[in-house]
Amino acid sequence: MHAVVRLASWTAAFVAAGYVGRATIIDGTALSLVWPAAGVALLWLATSSRRTVAADTACFATATFVVNASTGASPALATVFVVANLIQAGLVLALARWWVPEV
Question: Can you tell me the distance from the alpha carbon of 28 to that of 96, in angstroms, rounded to the nearest whole number?
Answer without folding.
Answer: 36
